[in-house]
Structures are given as C-alpha cells and as structure tokens.
Amino acid sequence: MEAYIYNLVNLIAIYSILAVTLNFIMGYAGIYSLAHAVFFGLGAYTSAFVAQNVSASILVSFPAAMLAAGVVSLALALPALRVRGEYFVAASLGLQVLSVTIYSEWKGFTGGIGGVLAIPPVNILGIDVFRPAAFAILSVTVLVLVLLIVNALVHSSFGRNLRAIRDSESAAASFGKNVPVIKTISVVISAALAALAGALYASYLSFINVESFTLDTSVLVMAMVIIGGTGTVAGPIVGAAILLILPSVISYFDFLPQTEIGSLQQIIYGLGMTLLMIFRPGGIVGRRSGT
Amino acid sequence: MLAIQLAITGLQTGALYALTAVGFSLIFGSTRIFHFAHGAAFVIAAYFFYAAFGAGWGVIPAIGVSAFGAVAFGLLLDRLVYVPIQRHEGSFFTVFVASFGVGIAVQNVIGMIFGRGYVTVNTTLSRSVEVIPEVYVSPLAWIAIACAAVFLGGLGFFLKRTHTGMALRALADNPELVRTFGLNPRAIQAAAFAIGSVIVVPAAIITSATTGLSPAIGHHVMLISLAATIVGGIGSIPGTMLAGVMLGLAESLALLVVDTQWTEAVTFAILFAFIIIRPSGLLGRATAH
C-alpha cells in the first residue's frame, strides 16, 4: 500500500510538471500544443543517454535534457510565430506524429520500439536516488521548483506580455512588444521544463520506450490542463491528480470491465472535457464564466 | 514502372484524402466550427459498415447503415454540443476541446466494442490486376477515383447551383447577412454537418477494404483533413480537393526515396512548409490571422 502511494505521488508529480508547463503556453500565451509529449520524450531519452554514456549526476543529465528540448522546441516556436489557433493545432499535431516516427526509428538514441533498458538511477551528490519514497521527495521538489519558476514568470512583466499577446496579438505589437521573441521564449521555457518531467520519468522507471511519448500522452496532458482549469495555478495539478487516480477508482467498481480500464479512463475524460466546455469552460478550478 | 505504380496508388490515396478532407473543410469553412471530431465521424462510418457488412447485410444496406451513422453523429454533435457552446461564447478553443473530447470518447467506445487492432473488410475487389506490364491496380482504386469524381463534382454543383449550397457559401462570408435575408443560420449549419459528415462515407468504406481500420485512425484522418484544408486554403473547397489529391500523390511518390513509415512525415513536411511560407494556402485568400 505504501509503495503504491509513493508510486502514485511520483507519477502525479511528473505529470503535474507536464501539465503546469503546458498550461504556461496554453493558458497564458494561447498556444494550444498537441506536441507536449515530444518534449517529455526528448527529455527522457536525452537524460537516459547522458546517464548511460556520460554521467548519471543530476547536475549533468537534467540540464542536458533541458537543453535538448529547448533547442528542438524552436521547431514548434517557428509555426507559432507565423500563425495561431487552428493552424497551430495542425502544426503541433504533425510534429507529434513525426516525432513518434523518429523515436521509433532512431535506434542508436531511443532504442527503437524496444526502448532504452537499464537506465541508471539519478545521482545527487554521490547518492543514488531510486527508492519510491526517496524519489517522491525529489519529484515533488522538482515540481515545486517548476511551479515557482512558472509563477514568477507569470507574475512578472513577461507574464503580462504573454497575456496581452493571448488576448490580442496586434494590440500587444502596437504597444511595442516584441511578439515573436516573447512567444519563442515562452515555448522554449515550457519545453525545457517539460524535459525535467522526462528526465525524472526515465530515471524513476529505469526503462522507457516510445509508447509513453505518443499522441495519447499529449492528449492526456492537455486533458489534465483543461479539466483542472486553463490559465490557473492549481488547475493543472488538480487535473493531473484526478486523471491519474481515475484508473484506481474505476478498478474499485467491480461491475465495470476491468480489462478496459485504459479505455474507460479515456472515455471519462473525453466526455468530461466536452461537458466542461458546455457547462463550465473555465475548468474545475477556473472562474465560472470561463476565459 | 515503379513510378507509374506509385502514381496510381497515390491517386487512389489522394482521392480518398480529398473525400475525407472536404467534409471538414466544408464544415469549418462555412460555420467556423473547428470540428475535430470529424475523424470520429469517419471512424463511425467505417465501423458501422464493417459491422453491417460482416453481419451479412449486403453492400447496399451496409452503406445505408454507414451513412446513417455518420449523419446522425454529425447532427447530434451539432445540436447537443456546438449549438449550446455557441450560445454562451464559442471561442476557437472551447469548441476545439469539446469536439476533441467527443473524438476521444468515440475512439475508445469503438475500441471496446470492436477491439483496438486492425480489421479489414474482405472483398475480391481489393485483389490487384496487372493492367500494363508490372503495374498492378485493384478495382477498388478505380472505384475510389470514380467516387471522388462523382461526389466532389456533385458537391461542387450543389454549392454553386442549389439554394442550400448558396446559403452555405453565404454563411461562410457573412452570418449576419444570412439572417438579414430571412434564412436560418442554425438550419444551414445543420445542413453543413449533414453534408460534411455523409461525404466521408465512401472514403471510410473504401479504406476499410484497402488499408484496414483501427479505432485510432481518426487522428490520422484529422491530420490529413487539417493538412488538406490548410494547404488548400481555408474556406476553399476546390483548394481542399486539390490539396487532398496532392498529399496522396506526394505520400505515395515519396516511397521512391523513403520507407513506408515516413509517409506521414511527408504530409507534415508539406503542411509545415505551407504554414511557414504561404499560410493562405494554394487557393485561399484570407490570411492566417
């Protein structure tokens, strides 16, 4: 039971990092990305590669993951500068599909479909962290750090610029805001922080493969943000916790087909998203009137 | 010879892409509703046909069941989800998320009923015949191309010559003016959903006999529909058709240089190039903003 709870805490912390970072660009900059799992995956693969070949120290593998995701996110920032709304959804969907192909094919880096095995545990000041309880401290700490960074950004002038761009790009530009630079920075920050979730995930499970970084994951993270409340501080974490506890709740009800837990979970959050949009577009935590 | 073979296969794929994408393009162009569940309409049409045909209902009744499923889905979604949302706001994001949620639910319900693996409808029509030396074409390829010609031609005629068609185009241009002329925008919107959903039926059925179906095919359908709509130019039905055929041909001809798993990457590269260089698309006039 204890192990189960620690495991759940770790997963909630990791997915909360993804949801918080996606909310950063979705809720504050109006960039609706269906490609967040790409950076989750890139962070995981990069930190696994570095941990196996260079050093498993948190001071080496985690920054490497952030750097890789930050650089690759420029591929997502490029269309975000040109277009918004439906165009960007299409571009990010395409990037997600393309990345899954690359992750499945680039065997030297990702191990192909088989994935990467025996990833060494993350090393902090000479101590290997791998027990679920110890790891929970690490993952929650990283989550808190990410929250602090995002919160500081949102409440700075940078955050005000982002909201101005979300509400009216041309108005922000006419006030002399450098819209392309602000948007690019926000995408890069979001991707780099999302890579931390990937690095945690890889070292926690010590095994990763492409299954964890598909469109389904991007969709799940987006559902967490939306159900919790887009553009709120607590929303993404509430959403992540609800959606990750959902499978256990389903297994509690005997009359539901237990072999279909994954499908039931997706049906529930799919319909949940639809109903929220009809009756409460702001999400669970969000304001009643929506955005 | 390989190039000719691939070009014919590409034309078949392109015909199906055009038929799939044009429904989304019609709905999005005329109502501005980002109907992400269009992929779900395709999945429903395809699996309804698969189930009815598999139960021994014969081809014509199975096509009827399939068309009924797609149209009922489109109309119900419009009535129960989009209309209530439009009543209070209807920003792009709200509509997209609601539609997206329905798509996820449909994919998983279908997956629970029919299984998540690939299924195929068995027919002798998918057996390839050697038409000229070393070029093999199945009768289904000709059926796909003929269907595309008939349905897309019919749609073009409908939009140009009938009252409903003209009203649809008017709705795309100016919804307020439509109301001023005493037409009911909501009824026209319902018509857009009925037509946009029914036109995926031929593509869904032919796909079920050629490449096969899986519940997750809806995402692929959406990627193609979005790509064709954007590459063709948002609001331009002929542009979408052209782009659909072009994407099919490009995916197929790309096999001359790359392996099959990269075909979606080709679509993405074309889409990406258009978004960066020419967001207004092939035949579009409006810009992205």
TrEMBL record, chain A:
One Gene Ontology CC term in the entry: plasma membrane
The keyword Cytoplasm is assigned to this record: no
Transmembrane feature ranges: 6-25, 32-51, 57-78, 109-127, 134-154, 185-207, 219-246, 266-286
Subcellular location: Cell membrane
Keyword Transmembrane: yes
Alphabetical list of InterPro entries matching this protein: ABC_transp_permease (IPR001851), LivM-like (IPR043428)
Topology of the protein relative to the lipid bilayer: Multi-pass membrane protein
GO molecular function annotations of the record: branched-chain amino acid transmembrane transporter activity
Swiss-Prot/TrEMBL keywords: Cell membrane, Membrane, Transmembrane, Transmembrane helix
A Pfam family recorded for this sequence: BPD_transp_2
Xref: CDD domains: TM_PBP1_LivM_like
Name of the featured protein: Branched-chain amino acid ABC transporter permease
Originating organism: Primorskyibacter flagellatus
Automatic annotation (TrEMBL), chain B:
UniProt cross-references to InterPro entries, sorted A to Z: ABC_transp_permease, BCAA_transport_permease
Primary location group: membrane
Keywords, alphabetical: Amino-acid transport, Cell membrane, Membrane, Transmembrane, Transmembrane helix, Transport
GO molecular function, one term: transmembrane transporter activity
Protein topology in the membrane: Multi-pass membrane protein
GO biological process, alphabetically ordered: amino acid transport
CDD domains: TM_PBP1_LivH_like
Superkingdom of the organism of origin: Bacteria
Protein family per UniProt: Belongs to the binding-protein-dependent transport system permease family. LivHM subfamily.
Name of the protein in question: Branched-chain amino acid ABC transporter permease
